[in-house]
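Problem statement: downstream parser choked on a complex file, so we are re-checking the raw output for the zinc ion run. The parser issue turned out to be on our end (a line-ending mismatch), but while we're here, posting the original submission so the record is complete.
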Amino acid sequence: MHQREYPFQAIESKWQRFWQEIDLYRAPERPDARKFYVLEMFPYPSGTDLHMGHLKNYTIGDVIARWALMQGYAVLHPMGWDAFGLPAENAAIQYGIHPRIWTERNIAAYRHHLQQLGVSYDWSREIATCWPEYYRWTQWLFLYLYRRGLAYRASEYVNFCPNCKTVLANEQVVEGKCERCKTPVVKRALEQWFFRITAYAERLLQDLEKLRGKWPDHIIRQQENWIGRSEGTEIHFPLQHRPDIRLPVFTTRADTLFGVTFVTIAPEHEIVDRLLDDMPADARQRVETYRAQAMQKSDIERAAVDRPKTGVPTGLYAVHPYTGEPVPIWIGDYVLVNYGTGIVMGVPAHDERDFVFARKYGLPIRPVVRPIDGNLPDPDRMDTAWTEKGVMEHSGPFSGLPSDEGIRRIQEDLRQRGLGGPAVSYRLRDWLVSRQRYWGAPIPVVHCPRCGVVPVPEEQLPVRLPEDIQNFLPTGRSPLEDVPEFIHTTCPACGHAARRDPDTMDTFVDSSWYFLRFIDPHNEHAIFDPEKVRSWMPVDQYIGGAEHATKHLIYARFITKVLYDGGLLAVDEPFTHLFTQGMVLKRFFWCPTCLRPVGEPNIHRQDDTLRHDACNTTVVERLEMMSKSRGNIVPVGPFLEAYGADVARIAILFAGPPEKDFEWTDAIVEGARNFLNRIWRRFTETAPQQCARIDPAQLQGAPRTLYTRLQRTIHQVRTDLERFRFNTAIAQLMTFLNEMYRFSDTDHPVMHHAWTVFVQLLAPFAPHLAEELWHRLGNTDSVFRQPYPVENPDYMREATVSIPVQVNGRVRATIEIPADADRAVVEQTARAHPNVQRYLAGKTVQKVVYVPGRLINFVVR
Ligand code: ANZ
Ligand code: ZN
């Protein structure tokens, strides 16, 4: 007796229970075999409705984890929740629900769905960053950095509303004004906490070499650009009126030094404060006004190349380190305070921004570099800067030198004279980790009027986030400021009244170390046991979204290096291999009048176009990432109810190469379902029995061919798995299933054997169905406790023949086909050949002539 459709409802829950009972996914405390740590980036539980797009990376991770399990690795495959963050607070504001309740509810939904999908997590290791057992150690980590001088407080310019007397998040500033009271927002220097990631800039850059070939190239490139190493020269310009004070500039073009006609300082540079006192009264007035204006612009606005460059003269002068000439000092907002030294030397003849600036303010333009076989540009006839390197002129002792040689000589000379030298600048900035928000890990320090900043003693951690809080409305200051029981405390050092730090940590701090906690999640005495971590780290395969390239993936590398330097870790890179999956897209309709997505129930057809019921506008079809806001999601719950987990998994995996985006369609789902149903039907029709080994030497004819094809299938699937080509691995299995349908002697031992192997090959992809069939083959243990099949290399070769492919009688390709291949296979193989495709493109095939084993000819027009 057999069914047409396989009964996934009964099967899936049954085997999920079984796996739980035999504790299949429990990772040992310390691996006793070769270990494999596979990790998917843990999610932010942002709602209760997961959609299929969410499931892709977990499905990929699960295939890898199950495959590793079958290869005999001790596997660590944990899951947890990146559970602090703003959306929880926004939900609190919007629905009046406490962030903790909202978050726990979402976690429950995520957990349920992932369990329904049958992902092989060791749930005994579940963590959530918002649980005090976890954030206690995030706080510990903060103090660890603090004690090493890697966490510090500094003034940072933040948005400030002078009327509301509060700082504002960038999102609260609308057109330069306070969102609430419309007062122009200014920049105020406010004390914030930073992690000194710049101290690791060079290592973060160098060690990318260790990851090359194992991480996607584009991620490595993004990190390189983000770190942004720039080699140049630092040059010191003494002040004319106070030669003991010097203005350091950073330049990549020291060869243009003799063309300097001004120096520009970033408006918020601290040195400006000192210079103000020395300025003539009118200049001071001007500078102060200009400064206030500059503070109202974002860095992006300021640095934009196409924006008019503005500035004001200070009335003060610096002295050129070679010519001794006075050089006017300007303040200009195209200079960014936090790059290089925050001061630039202006060389209008050779730098475009300086050129525009000089033209605008009537500053001299002095060319000092010429093309190798040309003359110096004529300053009166230039309409842009000449920015190439060349030969130096009018450059004192350096005249006549090529640019690069001149740069080296100037660097050496400056160094000897104590006026600068070679310098390296990084774009990477220190990591601002304090947030004036509620739903995060409190920063574990106390501010004491006598002792200053005092870390909370370790044994007093965690500094608990107070639960009883009503008002989350963002005011720019932390809601914790208004919780007296929290804020008022005593100084751990002197015992007098003191205040707790009201800020919480950036959630990227929480996620910068979670992969370590999974190894020892319940440790109450330490962040983790270094010995356990030594045995499991690094993460062998990390899987997640490419959007984390320059955030999480840099922070995690940084924290790993800090812990390595402190002797807590034996590795200085956390993730050996990284895989970034593509997105899941889905079509939807968009109304260009209402400017929003429109669901199919609200669309009608009129005059052959689809229109929005509400406004009768013709809707447009768009293909974009699944998301709630686009209304194009396929919710996980109903899908799993209708099709089951294995169909979901096969659909996701078969849709295309996993690193690419793919479009979710009904056809993909149907394809997946048909495949599993066909397996089920053939299996139940023929009722094979376990047959682990047969003697291939005894096989002849069709059984021998089947055996050979099985070896080839094993080989293909294995290599595809190694390369993350799950789609082609599944295609191989489909092809082999066809072979098993074609093979008529269903009681032949080779068939029993083929099924036994097939079920094992299938297991990482469709674990529930595979486990069911494995037991139906007569086994009692889990299929995941079997070694993954290995091909018999002696039986890989099949009798093949090569035949020419003709298009209109001319040979365009030669293809290799199995000797007994039928016409359909030959035709398909021929059509798939790139050269044949080229000759068929745009043509109509009128006839296909096949002379078996001889040739195939396409007659086209
Ligand atoms: C003089 C000069 C002459 C420059 C010339 C360029 C061409 P990268 O390669 O990105 O490191 N610069 C330095 N600090 C700056 C700051 N804080 N804000 C804005 N611009 C700054 O760029 C280095 C160049 O960018 C430096 O070299 C400096 O301009 C400018 F013919 O100095 B240059
Ligand atoms: Zn004190």
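For whoever reads this later: The two ends are 51 Å apart (CA to CA).
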